[in-house]
Write a structure and sequence with these properties.
- About 30% of the residues lie in helices and about 35% in strands.
- It is α+β, with helices and mostly antiparallel strands and about 100 residues long.
- The chain has one domain: Alpha-Beta Plaits (2-Layer Sandwich), CATH 3.30.70.
- The protein is globular, with a radius of gyration of 14 Å.
């Protein structure tokens, strides 16, 4: 599994409630997306940086989404280019489901 940490600067700080509204508007794009296990929308405490933490089945699945078209969507929606950091996630503890998930 791969975790992608995506972040981008916002043109002006936003509140948690504003972020929630914007994030809910884009959430349907990620529902049932092939290879995506989970996505967390994130907002810095000062409201100046937003992004997402994604858990993917593989880096290939992630890269199928992080295309130039996707980057242009982020740029248009939030006003800056996303920065993506990939991290290996060989084990995930999920307390909601009670599972410990390991890479194959």
């Amino acid at each position: 599994m791969i975790t992608a940490f995506v972040q981008f600067k916002l043109p002006a700080p936003i509140t948690r409630d504003q972020a929630r509204e914007v994030f809910l508007s884009t959430a349907p794009k990620y529902k049932d997306l092939p290879g995506l296990i989970r996505k967390y929308y994130v907002l810095s405490e000062d409201g100046g940086t937003a992004g997402g933490i994604y858990l993917w089945e593989s880096r290939a699945a992630a890269e199928r989404v992080y295309t130039e078209e996707w980057k242009a969507f982020v740029r248009g929606k939030y006003g800056s280019d996303p920065q993506i950091t990939f991290l290996h996630s060989p084990v995930v503890v999920d307390n909601l489901s009670g599972e410990t998930i390991a890479d194959d």
